[in-house]
Amino acid sequence: MPQKNIYRFGRDYATLSIAPKRKVYDEKIIRRGKDEYRIWDPTKSKLSAALQKGLRNTPFFRGMKIVYLGAANGTTPSHISDIIGQSGLIYAVEFSSRSMRDLISVSRARKNIIPMLADARMPDTYANQIEKADLIYCDVAQPDQTEILIRNAKLLLKKGAYIMIAIKARSINVIRNPKHIYAEEREKLKKEFDILEELNLHPLEKDHAFFVAKSR
Predict the structure, then answer these.
(1) Measured distance CA(156)–CA(127) in Å, rounded
(2) What is the rounded CA–CA span in Å between residue 165 and residue 136?
(3) CA 20 to 30 Å from 87, out of 65, 153, 187, 203?
């Protein structure tokens, strides 16, 4: 079951905002006294989609260090920011300068997000700016997305720490059966990590699989 920093409101999941009165996207807000809960839209976050599909392994804790590859506009990072709290830190790696502008805006209200304009394919260019991570989250829609994750993990992930990856089959091959692609990517991951969970995100995210694994 999702851990204590992720909340339920009926069928919806939510996070307790560390930056009240500031929306990140068009998320719904529920107020309980002084607390403000942000409903986590599963159509705009693959991690939220995974929760809706029954994700059991959510290895988040207050104060943890996370490397987020493919942070985009900051939607999912903002919810993880709520979960890990002010004592945690997200190194949010994004290649697009357009997305980076939005990400910087999000980080102004969330001091636990550090935007990094960088290419996730080349972790050696930013490794000296990042602490060893408790978790690497990868949402990079590229043909070599699994290899990108592994490359980063070898440089930046603690032993016994975790990875999460959203694999987009159509970014790898638009013709082949996604199930065959997931099987191949699973084998790549198994060489480096112990896989804890695998979910197909259909129909919330078309042709996406979500993996949680632990480093050895």
Answers:
(1) 7
(2) 8
(3) 153
Backbone angles phi, psi at 65, to 5 degrees: -105, 130
pLDDT of 49-73, one tens digit each?
A: 999 999 999 999 999 999 999 999 9
**If we measure between CA atoms, which residue out of 33, 32, 34, 28 comes closest to residue 14?**
28
pLDDT tens string 121-146: 999 999 999 999 999 999 999 999 99
State the CB neighbour count (10 A cutoff) for residue 125.
Answer: 12
Q: Is the pTM of this model over 0.90?
A: yes
Distance CA 93, CA 8 (A): 29
Q: Which two tokens stand for residue 105?
A: 């805006």
Residue 162 sits at the vertex; the CA angle it makes with 160 and 164, to the nearest 5 degrees, is 160
Other C-beta atoms lying within 10 Å of the C-beta of residue 109 = 16
Would you call 25 exposed, middle or buried from its count of C-beta atoms within 10 A (0-12, 13-18, 19+)? Answer: middle
Nearest-5° Cα angle at 157, 166 to 202: 10
Taken in order of first residue, the domains within the chain and their CATH numbers are: 41-215 (3.40.50.150)
d(CA 134, CA 161): 5
Is residue 90 within 8 A of residue 134, CB to CB? The reply is no
